[in-house]
Design a protein that fits this description.
By secondary structure, the chain is mainly alpha-helical. 59% of the residues lie in helices and 4% in strands. A two-stranded antiparallel ribbon has the order 1-2. It has a two-stranded antiparallel ribbon with strand order 3-4. A two-stranded antiparallel ribbon has the order 5-6. Helix 9 crosses helix 10.
């Protein structure tokens, strides 16, 4: 099953030779990463097990072949892409991540296939074994809305709720140690405590609740600016012309919510 999202490590990008390339070359490599992510052979540019032709790769990147080869040469000279003995281009980080995920799946499979003594369990025909299987299946939330609702109840901002969802959903709801997530609400509470610890450090000891409110404030202000950017003004009347019918109502609600949050911050 293909991953729904790509893991992007900003720190690695900034420390990699790619950061010294032109913006044009950086953009091409990012597009190539998308192709690698979508490929069956994850992180590698292959077609039926053979190196992907330059013409095909250029077409998938939406670039003329001559322009593609010119910009790709800059990436090659900087040592950004890697090649194996067969000449297949691959991303070192993406291939390494794929191996890590495969190792995690293998460890989980071994865990499911053995009992506490380390011996092979009975076939999956017995009732106790079936119950064990259910216990070792990730208990994921049905939708992001369920996560957002529970996060709001716990006072966690929507941005962190989204970060929590994106991370564990990309991992198939398995923890970094390869074990399945059995209680996502408990895991979200742990995520919240880490956010609060970071918030205290980043706000010079102010209460974590204030930090959480400020995060909500930033998110709402960003939404307000997003609506403003697509709103024009009628030069004859001076009235705002909204891009969609719902923008005006949404803007009113956001401003009311922003006012409420600012009042809560002042009362802290």
């Amino acid at each position: 099953m293909k991953l729904p999202a790509i893991q992007f490590y900003v720190g690695d990008w900034l420390r990699d030779p790619i950061s010294g390339c032109s913006l044009e070359a950086q953009g091409l490599w990012l597009r190539i990463m998308f192709v690698m992510h979508d490929n069956e052979d994850y992180g590698r540019l292959t077609v039926n097990g053979k190196p992907m032709p330059s013409q095909l790769l250029a077409r998938r990147c939406g670039s003329p072949l001559d322009e593609f080869e010119r910009v790709f040469k800059e990436l090659d000279d900087a040592g950004v892409p890697s090649r194996d003995e067969a000449g297949i281009i691959y991303s070192r980080r993406m291939v390494r991540d794929a191996k890590t995920r495969a190792g995690n799946r293998e460890r989980v499979a071994r865990f499911r296939g053995s009992n506490h003594t380390g011996e092979e369990s009975e076939p999956l025909t017995s009732e106790p074994r079936a119950k064990s299987e259910r216990k070792n299946t990730p208990k994921r939330p049905k939708t992001f809305d369920a996560v957002a609702e529970y996060a709001a109840q716990q006072g966690l901002c929507i941005n962190e709720a989204r970060a929590f969802w994106d991370y564990y959903d990309s991992q198939g709801w398995y923890k970094p140690n390869g074990m399945p997530v059995l209680n996502w609400k408990s895991l979200l509470n742990q995520w919240k405590r880490r956010c609060e610890t970071m918030g205290k450090q980043e706000t010079n000891g102010k209460p974590a609740s204030v930090w959480s409110l400020r995060e909500q404030q930033k998110s709402i202000e960003a939404d307000i600016n997003r609506i403003k950017l697509r709103t024009t003004k009628d030069w004859q009347t001076g009235n705002a012309v909204y891009a969609t019918n719902g923008d005006k109502d949404e803007l009113t609600q956001l401003r009311a919510k922003l006012k409420e949050i600012k009042e809560q911050i002042r009362s802290q």
